[in-house]
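Structure first, sequence second, as always.
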């Protein structure tokens, strides 16, 4: 059962925007060494970059068109 659940999770992750995944991973590494008060403004900056990306625009467009997004990693 662990193997099949692991494969399901890997497939779900693989279907996500590569840019969003990179940004999320980078943010996780950054916040480890930050003071707690630095995290919210840094997170807002990172989110602004992510929401302005081509992948984010594609996600919204695909959602409205009821289709799977085509990620570009930009």
């Amino acid at each position: 059962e662990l193997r099949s659940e692991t494969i399901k999770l890997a497939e779900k992750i693989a279907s996500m925007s590569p840019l969003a995944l990179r940004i999320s991973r980078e943010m996780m590494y950054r916040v480890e060494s930050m003071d707690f008060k630095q995290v919210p403004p840094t997170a807002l900056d990172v989110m602004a970059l992510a929401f302005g990306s081509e992948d984010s625009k594609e996600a919204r467009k695909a959602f409205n068109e009821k289709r799977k997004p085509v990620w570009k990693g930009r």
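Margin note: The mean pLDDT is 89.
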